[in-house]
């Protein structure tokens, strides 16, 4: 895969973050999301790729739906997994941890999934191969504490703040571990486990399946680990999973099954301030963005701070 796609991936998430941040705190979740999606799509339309969006928007109202063809069709054949705005509720309310994410890989890199729910568990490199989603939280937390050389009471578990995760939260509290509840955007929560300086040691709980794939892409670049399985499926949805070739709808997916090969690039740009990145900061005549770029093949991690001068280069 062309190495020039690394900087192109950053352009995708920078544009989406700039557009989404214009609507921060204004209370309109859909406007924030669609603005980010439109910006990302406009950048994609200029890229020298023959791309297919395999993990895209939940709605066909945007041009980034599953199966959409993007790029000018003359360059490398690639697959994309995108989330123009992860944390649209957070952005609309002016909260923390809203980001824009895009992953680019060779054909077949990303597991294709509908927008169902998945139970997930994610950890960083220091706890790789130590967790088992079939085990109760107490067992997994104890294993993570041992791997990290910490007391259980010093372990922090990130959980999406939803009613469906309330039983899990109760179990975690019974272990004595700390919990970081997030209102939206568990992609950042999962990725944060791979950074030693992060306060988050592991992510657990039920969230979106598409978000699981994107988070797994970044974690694989960082040699982290993740397991996931579908939950809450109706009989019709279980049949759909079988039709997609996954077999048992209750099976557990490993990170290597969610992300195949080693030619994946992931870009993450902050929209609002968060645990990993500052959000977009507007200045006279422009704005500043902060991004992280992951490259799986070389395990390279780049922090990119950009100053955008709108007088010389309007966003669009």
Structure in words:
Strands 1, 2, 3, 4, 11, 12, 13 and 14 form an eight-stranded mixed beta sheet that branches. Helix 1 (5-21) runs antiparallel to helix 2 (29-44) and helix 6 packs parallel to helix 7 (209-221). By secondary structure, this protein is an alpha+beta fold. The relative contact order is 0.17. It has helices spanning 5-21, 29-44, 88-92, 137-148, 166-175, 186-192, 209-221, 235-243, 255-258, and strands at residues 49-55, 69-70, 76-86, 99-106, 117-123, 156-160, 178-182, 202-208, 225-231, 253-254, 264-270, 281-283, 286-295, 300-309.
Number of strands: 14
- Helical amount: 25-40%
Number of helical runs?
Answer: 9
Distance between the termini: 28 Å
Q: Nearest-angstrom radius of gyration? A: 19 Å
Summed over residues and divided by their number, the pLDDT gives a mean of 94
What pattern of helices and strands is seen along the backbone?
HHEEEHEEHEHEHEHEHEHEEEE
- Biggest beta sheet attributes: 8 strands, mixed
Task: State which percent range the strand residues make up.
Answer: 25-35%
Q: Per the principal axes of the C-alpha atoms, what is the gross shape?
A: globular
Instruction: Supply the helix-strand structural class.
Output: alpha+beta
Low-confidence stretches: none
